[in-house]
Amino acid sequence: MDWIVSSPYAYPALEAAHIVGIALLLGSLVVFELRVWGAATAIPQNALARLALPVTLTGFGLAAASGGLMFASQYGELLANRAFLVKMALLVAGGLNAALLHWRGGLLAQDRAARFQTALSLVIWVAVIICGRWIAYI
Length: 138
Fold this sequence. Notes:
The chain is an all-alpha fold.
C-alpha cells in the first residue's frame, strides 16, 4: 500500500470517495427514516425502501472500500487511535442494528420499534462520522 502514501493524489482521492460514500449512505438512510417516522405518507414505504436500499448499500460499499484502503496505508497508527477504535465499534453496532431491523421486517414496519431503530441508526451513523473526523486530531 505504499502507492497510497507515496502518491500526492491517492489519499485525497480515497478521502473524497469515502465522503461521497458517506453522503450516499447517510442521505438515503435519512430519506427512508423520515418515511418510517411518518413523513411523505403518499410514497409507499416499500417502494421507497426498494429505491433507498441500493443507494445505501452502494454508499456503504464505497465508504468501506475507500476506508479499507486508507486503513491499509496506515494501519499501525489507526489501531493505536482511540477515535478509530470507537468508530469501528460503532460500525459494528450500526450493522447489527440494520440486520435486526431487516430481520424483523422493519423496512415495511411503521411500529414504535422500527421508529426507535431508525432513530438509533441515525445517531450511530452520525457518531461514526464524528469519530472519523476525530481520528485526525487524537
